[in-house]
Amino acid sequence: MLIIDNVSKRYPTGDLALRNVSLNVPRGQVVGLIGPSGAGKSTLLRCINRLEEPSEGVVKLNDLEVTSLSSSSLRRARRSMGMIFQDFALVDRLSVMENILSGRLGYVNFWQSFSRRFPQADITRAFVVLERVGLLDFVDKRADALSGGERQRVGIARAIVQEPELLLVDEPTASLDPRVSIQIMRLIVELCAERQMAAIINIHDVALARMFVDRIVGIRQGMIVFDGPSEMLSNEVLSEIYGAEQEVLNSPVSPAVTI
Amino acid sequence: MNLQLRRWRPKPLIKNPYVCIVTCLAVIIYLFFAIGSLDVKWLRVLEGLSRAAALWSGFLHPDFTSRWDDIRNGLLESLTMTFTASIVGLVFAIPFSIGAARNIVPMPIYIFCRAFIAISRSLQEIIVALFFVVLFGFGPLAGFLTLVFATIGFVAKLLAEDIEDTSPRQLEALRATGAGFYQIVVFAILPQIMPRLIGLFMYRIDINFRDSAVIGIVGAGGIGATLNTTMERYEFGSAAAILLIIILIVVLCEYTSGYVRSRFN
Amino acid sequence: MPVSFARNGTKLWQRRTRLSDWLRYLAWLLIVALFVFCWRLMTMDTIWAYVLDSPRQGADIVSRMWPPRFGYLWQLWAPLWATINMATLGTLLAIVLALPFAFLSAIKTTPNRYLVRSMALLVISASRSINSIIWTMLLVAIVGPGVLAGVIAIALRSFGFISKLLYEAIDEVSNHPLEAIRSTGASGPQVLAFGIWPQITPAFVGISLFRWDINIREATVLGLVGAGGIGANLEASMNLLAWPQVAVILTVILATVIFSEWLSAAIRQSLI
Fold first, then answer.
1. C194/A105 CB distance under 8 A
2. B12 belongs to a structural domain
3. Does a structural domain hold residue B123?
4. In Å, how far is C95's CA from the nearest CA of chain B?
5. For residues C93 and B42, is the Cβ–Cβ distance under 8 A?
6. pLDDT tens per residue across span B34-48
7. Which residue among A116, A124, A128 places its CB closest to the CB of B10?
């Protein structure tokens, strides 16, 4: 469903953030993306929905060449790709409902969005998603009145309400404590299974990745150095991806945390 | 509850519907009366459009030459007034700011200085200029004093707030070493406000120049008088020239001020 | 030059280097020289005898102002109403003008960073450089004397002020929510309505109230150049040398300004 073909990204400074990255993600598969910071994980995700423009290469979503779309077609294509951010990226002064409805902006015209009069079908979608992520009591609460975990659930709801085929998840748990991180990862993976969505999850906690995803892709210095099931993630592979720090990352999740 | 039927509306600005209706009505009634009181004489406005066109063409062909002597003298007056008044105003603002800081001076001085600052900031410059003209006669001296008065009020208020924000522990520590009032001022207060002075100076020069271009209308010197004459005689070319010069100088002041402030911070 | 030496003569600490000391001295010298030059130029034609006489003059005028003619107060209600309208309508018009210019000047929302933005910034500078009194003079020449000239003058002066503060607020808005909204497939205007506008609403209200307060103060004097309102009464009274009336007018102006400043600060406080 998602085909990334030889994508490279060069910054104006000359640094190569991505080198000839190729990846195929079939429908419904959840992929974990791991690697040291600065390896290019975020850049890869952002090149897929063109928040950053790849310098070379092609991204195809269901045979639609995303990389060559005009701006209006790109907007339509982005409806099929939901993005979830590390720092939640909510509009603090808006309510939970309004933040979630912003996921439907690609489907409504300007006046509907300006006056906040969304079609009832969209409102229903939002309520269904709100119930699914467990925030039905928070409908009109301001986004900045929520805890970190609750805010990320709003971010997830906003991505889901788009009814996308692909989720691009950029370090969803980096700002959350361990117990909440597990809840969030479980929520994302369950939603993908329920709605047959593919997902690429950028994750820095290898143990968490191993717990929840089947396929892991390791990136180092802009290149894919590992692509396979999480069982095959041995110490040697980890040291190849991360360099010398793999001892720290290889430790299992603390037994004090309930699963 | 069946989610299919659940409705949602964005939260209204004013929660209480009665308050909302009353406010809306009040606004509409006010606007009706306010705009009604405007008394627009449409014939006069139509006539005026031709004059507006003349003004616009004046901007496209500004006339710098016919009144050049007046313009040059007026400009010189404005610039000298601005520079001297900004410096003198800044210097005098320091004692006033110290006197307006509750944490270091006794109550009577505090009240006096605060009253002075409040009056300085509430009175429009042109009114102050009028009075100085009546007192000191026509000419740039009255304008100079006007700008000094305005500068003191503006700068002293800001500095006084800074001084009042000084941590009381700093002052305590100094007092514990046996420092007297003047030593406290020199070693604790002045180092705190000095860095601000350059930024305030540049900011105030900008404002003072703009004001200096206006107080000439009432005779306090500067380019305002020349501008007034050109406007009264409908010499739009010269008026436009003067306005363009003013805009240019103000924009230059802003750039310099931005540059100086970024270098010294 | 603050310096301290050790007992054997070696220098331990010096506040500034020799060169920077000289440079500072030079800078001071230049400023003082410039000051003296400007002062002489400025006071070339000053009649110092007149200046020395001024305290007596001042006392004379103040004595003429007393007792203030309080009966004049009832004549001031209509001009005061006109003045407040000038300020309020002018501010409203300024807001309408300021919004498009703010969006054109902010880096985040301008359609073209070089041409369009520079032109918008130029217009904003022109609006801010020209005092509202000068704008009034221009408008009185065009639409004739009266409150209308004052309203338009205040609008033309204020929209630059509001625009500048507004575009600075827009450029300080946090970028991540904007990216998130764009990634859902929203168009530029939708990002503006859903992402930028909610983030700048408090700043917008604060700036508008602030400018309204300043405009009240400015509107009180526009009558001096023909725009009606209480300034016209001031002009008339001064021409007639009716000092007791002048005293009353000044008190009313002072009271209005203080009240509007208090009101504007109170509303802004309650919104935070």
1. yes
2. no
3. yes
4. 15
5. no
6. 888 887 878 888 888
7. A116
